[in-house]
Amino acid sequence: MYEELKNSMQPVMEMAEINKKTAEKLIALQSKYVNEFVSSSMAQMKALTDIKDPKEAMEAQLKYLKEIEAKIADVAQQEVSALSEAKAQLTVLMEKNLKEAADKSYFAEMEKMVKNFTKK
Description:
The protein is mainly alpha-helical. Helix content is about 95%, strand content about 0%. It has three helices and no strands. The longest helix is centred in the middle third of the chain and has 50 residues, at about 55-105. The relative contact order is 0.09.
């Protein structure tokens, strides 16, 4: 009975593992981005304090914002990729389990169980 329960819970455990790995990947991406953002912001503030010409400061700020925009787009793309990969893995897992469920005749098993139960 323990083995049957363990086997029936296997797909749930596999789903949990896929979700865990995806969450870890997303958290790592966000953490890396936040660290880079804080570091680049501090570097930008230091660079701006050294600039005396307003036009040059504006150009430096515009360049910095474009770099930030590119980093945000890159992180977003990596996150979408991680989520798409998880979706594909979960889809394969669900299709496999649904096929296995269809291959097993649960109705026949239920009928046997009911017959055995009513005989007692």
